[in-house]
Design goal:
By secondary structure, the chain is of the alpha/beta class. The protein is built from twelve helices and ten strands. β6 and β7 form a beta hairpin. It is globular, with a radius of gyration of 33 Å. The termini are far apart.
Length: 359
C-alpha cells in the first residue's frame, strides 16, 4: 500500500515551514554575535599591541635624539669647538651665521665639546651665543662626543692613549682629528670657526692650499661618507703623530696624503685642477689674505681692492690663531675690513657686537 505524503503549495512538508526560519534566525544571530565578539577582542589586542609598539618606537627615537643624533644627519656644513667654552668670541658667531645665511638650503652643524645638548640650560641673558645661534633656522647645535666620533676609526686607539695635559697644541690637534672623523662619517663640508662665508658653497670633493707648498685643513669638502682619502688621513694621523710640531696633524698631514694620493711632489702644479676625483681649489677660495698678513683684516680697505681680492672667495679665513692674545677686535665705527664683513655677512652678530665683545 502506498502512502501519499500531503505537501503544501511549494512541496514543503506540513507544519515545517514555521520551524526552519526560527532555527535560521537563531543560527544567524549566534554567528553574528560570535563574529562581533571575536572582532572586538581582536581589535582590542591589536590596539594594545600597536600602542606598545609606538611607545617602544618613541622611546628609541627619544634615546637616539638625546644620546647621539648624529647618525641621522644629512650632509651639511660643519663647525667644531674643541674647548669646553660655550660663550665664544664674535668671530665664531659670525662664521656660523654668515655660513647659514649664504647656504640657506644646507644644514649648518656646530659641534661643541662643552655643550650638553639641552638648549634650556643656556638661557638669556646669562648666555648669548647659544640662544642667538639656535634661533637661526638651519643651524643645529650638537654636543661633541669624541668617544663616539672616533669609534670605528683608527683615531680611537690614539685618543684612548693620549694625555691632553701633556700636549703642546692639544685644542688644534684634537680639532684636526675631529674634522677628519666627521667628514669620514657624515660627508659634507668642514669649515674653521674663523672663516666668514661670502658665497654659497657647492658640495663636492675639494681641498684648498694656503700657498704653493701647503694645503690647509681650514676648509674641506667631501660629497659622500666614507671617502677613502679621509681614511688615509686618519691612518697617517696615527702613524706620524707628533703633538709638539705645529701643523703636523693638519696642513702637513693633508699635504703628505695628497702627494701620495696624486703621486706628485709639487702641490703648486696641481692648484686649480682635479686629481683622482679630488679638486685642488685655487687659494683665493678661502685664503686670499695669507696668514702672514692677517692684521690687514683689522684696517680700512678701499672698496675696489675688496672687490678685486675677494672676487673668487667663498669664505675669508681670518687666521684667528695669529690673534691668540685677543688684542685685535671687531670695533664698530672703525671702518675696518672685518667690520665691513660683519655688517654685510653676519648682521645679527654685528648688532650684538658690543655685548659679545664683553664675553
Amino acid at each position: 500500500m502506498k502512502i501519499k505524503l500531503q505537501t503544501g503549495a511549494f512541496g514543503e512538508a506540513p507544519h515545517c515551514h514555521t520551524m526552519i526560519p526560527i532555527r535560521l534566525i537563531f543560527s544567524l544571530v549566534f554567528i553574528i554575535g560570535a563574529s562581533v565578539l571575536l572582532y572586538v577582542i581582536w581589535h582590542l589586542k591589536t590596539q594594545q599591541h600597536f600602542q606598545k609598539k609606538m611607545v617602544r618606537m618613541s622611546q628609541v627615537e627619544d634615546e637616539a635624539t638625546m644620546e647621539d643624533p648624529r647618525p641621522l644627519l644629512d650632509p651639511g656644513i660643519m663647525f667644531v669647538e674643541t674647548s669646553d667654552n660655550v660663550e665664544l668670541k664674535p668671530l665664531v658667531m659670525c662664521s656660523v651665521e654668515s655660513t647659514a645665511r649664504q647656504n640657506p638650503d644646507k644644514p649648518i652643524y656646530f659641534f661643541m665639546k662643552g655643550f650638553s645638548g639641552n638648549l634650556s640650560q643656556y638661557p638669556e641673558p646669562k648666555y648669548r651665543l647659544i640662544p642667538l645661534l639656535s634661533s637661526m633656522q638651519n643651524v643645529v647645535l650638537l654636543p661633541l662626543n669624541a668617544n663616539k666620533l672616533f669609534d670605528d676609526t683608527s683615531l680611537n686607539t690614539w685618543y684612548q692613549k693620549v694625555n691632553p695635559k701633556e700636549e703642546r697644541y692639544w685644542l688644534n690637534v684634537f680639532a684636526d682629528g675631529c674634522r677628519f672623523a666627521l667628514l669620514w662619517k657624515y660627508g659634507g663640508i668642514y669649515l674653521d670657526t674663523d672663516i666668514i662665508s661670502m658665497k654659497s658653497m657647492p658640495f663636492g670633493n675639494f681641498i684648498c692650499p694656503e700657498n704653493a707648498d701647503y694645503i690647509s685643513v681650514g676648509a674641506l669638502g667631501f660629497s659622500h661618507r666614507h671617502h677613502p682619502f679621509l681614511w688615509n688621513c686618519m691612518k697617517d694621523f696615527v702613524a706620524n703623530y707628533n703633538g709638539d710640531i705645529w701643523g703636523q696633524q693638519g696642513p702637513k698631514l693633508i699635504t703628505r696624503v695628497m702627494k701620495r694620493w696624486c703621486q706628485m711632489d709639487n702641490i703648486g702644479a696641481f692648484i686649480g685642477k682635479e686629481c683622482n676625483n679630488i679638486s685642488l681649489w685655487i687659494t683665493d677660495r678661502f685664503y686670499p689674505v695669507p696668514w702672514s698678513a692677517w692684521e690687514k683684516y683689522f684696517v680700512p680697505w678701499k672698496m675696489k681692492d675688496v672687490e678685486r681680492i675677494f672676487s673668487a672667495t667663498y669664505g675669508a679665513h681670518v687666521w684667528n690663531f695669529m690673534n691668540s692674545s685677543g688684542k685685535k677686535k671687531v670695533v664698530t665705527g672703525s671702518g675696518s675690513l672685518i667690520e665691513h664683513f660683519f655688517q654685510l655677512y653676519c648682521p645679527t652678530t654685528y648688532r650684538n657686537l658690543n655685548q659679545l665683545n664683553n664675553i
